[in-house]
Every structure is written in structure tokens, then in C-alpha cells.
Amino acid sequence: MMSKKDLPRLVLLGDLKQEYVAEEIEEFTDFARSKARILASCSVEQCEREVLQQSDFAVVFGGDGSIISAGRSLSQYNLPVIGVNLGKLGFLAEFSVEELKEYFKEIMSGNVVVEKRMMLDCGIFENNLEKFQSKAVNDIFITAGSPFRTIELKISVDNQPLASCVSDGIVIASPTGSTAYNLSSGGPILSGKLEAMAITPICPHSLSFRPIVINADSKVEIAPQRLNEGTTVSIDGQVSRSLSENDIVRVERGKSPFLIVNNPMRTKWDTLASKLSWAVTPKYKKS
């Protein structure tokens, strides 16, 4: 029989203020008590660095927003995330509570795929001095904001001018984030394992400005030419920073990947079809 110190070490993460999260964490704790060492149960912000460094897996209870928030913090620890879906969509939170219990032994034994997801780094510079920095799991986007006039942005890739964009903003998405705001804005779906970035304008004042996909090692710089008072840069739709015309926004590949445990019951294409009805066959009228 495996001794307690040899059991896999888990940290359980979730927003205890959200509905059902505390109850599900408590139920899972009872299930896993003899199968793993639970080092802590906390929110990402409250977890001590030492706990995260010592853990083998982070089990995140919540929706995709909780997974994304955790991913920005956990990537530096090389800590695989098991997402338990208590939200609406569950693109990244791949497991239900029952599925996690069913595959718990396989996951702890390393018999499932842990996928490396590319992340993005965003910096905002003024006079060559960095005044803001953040990681992103999904995307970095600039939105026009109030009074909701179109804005103008000059975009360069690897110090080469790409385009001038008059629009409601722009999205730079990782492969993971390609199915989020990027997709809603008409951008392409990228395979999660791909190493690339998608650049997608938001409602461009042009019929010919189409989204593009660039190499993951590219450096994107955005120089504002005309903004609104409320124009902001947003990180994963969770962290925002106001933008001025003296700023330069720089987006690059993140230094460390986000590790997520795949659900062996489904593929990423199953998830696209089941969650977003992608490529679903039309419902023909029966003759």
C-alpha cells in the first residue's frame, strides 16, 4: 500500500463565493482523501507560493474564467491544471466532477495527456519604459470604449509595418483563445497545440482587412493613432488598463506554457462540436 507521503499532491482552487463551488470542493475532498495528499484548498490569489511549488496537480473548480485566471498564475510553476466545469461552457474546464472521479487514478498515474498551451505576454510602454505587464491565456485585445467612436491603430510585426486599422479595436489571440473573442470577431479557429498568434480586427472600417495568423515567435507592436477616452487594453477580458496615444502595446509569445490535463473521453473537435455546434450537419426536412 502506498504511504501517505508517496501519494500525489493536489491543490484545490476555486472561487468559494461562486454557487456550488464550496460544496463540490468539499465533496471531492472526501473522495480524494485516501487517494491523494491535498495540500490546500484556496483561491489562486490566496495560495502560498510554497504550496503551488510542491503540488503535482492543481484542480480548478469553476468555469472557463476560473481556469484562465488560474492559468496566468500557475504557468510559472509548471503545474498541470485539471479543470472541473461548474460553469456554462466548459471549453477549458474539461471534466465534470463525476468524470474526474472516474479517471482520477489514470490522471494521477500519468496515463492521460497533459497538453502544453502557448501563452502570450503583453507589455505597455511609454517613452520606452514599461508601465504595465501581464500574461494572457486567451487573448489581448484593444477596445474602442466610450464615447464609442472608431479608433485607429498602426500594427507592426517584427518591426515591419503590417497595417493601419480603423475599427472598434483588435484582438491578438493565442491558439487557446482562438475560440473566444477572436472567433466572435470572425477570426480563425486554431488547434490548441499550434504555436501561432491570430490578429483579428473588431468591426474594421474596411471590407478587405481580414484576420491573419502569424508565427508564434513574432513580436507584434500596436501604436495608437486615434483613441477614445475609454479605450482600454484587456487581458483575457479579466484585467484591463487604459490606453493613451503615447503608448505602445507589445505582444509576444509567453515565456512559459499553460499545462492542462485533457479529458480522455473527448477530443478538442468533440468539444467544438458539442459546445459551439461547429460543423454540425444541417437539419434537413424529412421527405
Structure description:
18% of the residues lie in helices and 36% in strands. The protein is an alpha+beta fold. The chain folds into two domains: 6-117 and 257-276, Probable inorganic polyphosphate/atp-NAD kinase, domain 1 (Rossmann fold, 3-Layer(aba) Sandwich), CATH 3.40.50; 120-253, Tumour Suppressor Smad4, CATH 2.60.200. A hairpin with a 3-residue loop joins strand 15 (232-235) and strand 16. The longest helix has 12 residues, at 21-32.
Explain the layout of strands and helices.
Layout (H helix, E strand, L loop, with lengths): L8 E6 L6 H12 L4 E6 L6 H6 L2 E6 L1 H11 L6 E5 L11 H6 L1 H5 L5 E4 L2 E7 L2 E8 L2 E5 L7 E7 L2 E8 L1 E5 L7 H4 L11 E7 L9 E4 L4 E7 L5 E4 L3 E4 L4 E7 L4 E4 L6 H9 L11
Parallel strand pairs: 1-2, 1-3, 3-4
Antiparallel strand pairs: 5-18, 6-7, 6-17, 8-11, 8-15, 9-10, 9-14, 11-12, 12-13, 14-17, 15-16
Gist of the model:
The chain is of the alpha+beta class. It has helices at residues 21-32, 49-54, 64-74, 97-102, 104-108, 181-184, 268-276, and strands at residues 9-14, 37-42, 57-62, 81-85, 114-117, 120-126, 129-136, 139-143, 151-157, 160-167, 169-173, 196-202, 212-215, 220-226, 232-235, 239-242, 247-253, 258-261.
Reported for the largest beta sheet, the result is:
6 strands, antiparallel
**DSSP summary: helix tally:** 7
**Would you report the number of β strands?**
18
**Any idea how many domains?**
2
DSSP helix fraction: 10-25%
Q: What is the fold-level CATH name, i.e. the topology of the largest domain?
A: Tumour Suppressor Smad4
Keywords:
single chain, 287 residues, alpha+beta, Rossmann fold, Tumour Suppressor Smad4, 2 domains, six-stranded antiparallel beta sheet, 7 helices, 18% helix, 36% strand, globular
